[in-house]
Amino acid sequence: MKKKISIVVLVILLIAILLVPSKQYADDGGSVCYSALTYSVTKHHSLLDKHEYMVGYTVNVLGKEIFNNTHAIRE
Fold this sequence. Notes:
The chain is α+β, with helices and mostly antiparallel strands.
């Protein structure tokens, strides 16, 4: 019984370590990256030049980009 409880606790800790993200801010105008060991999601909002900026999302799972809808917007 005690061994079963310790295995359950270990599995819960492993899932938490792999899936709980940390929030990081970039110094490019407002981009935010949420990253865990197995994935990362980046919300882009960065100034490219005086009248243009980039917005969108990028999703990486296990180091491979699976979604990218970033695009530039001119004012």
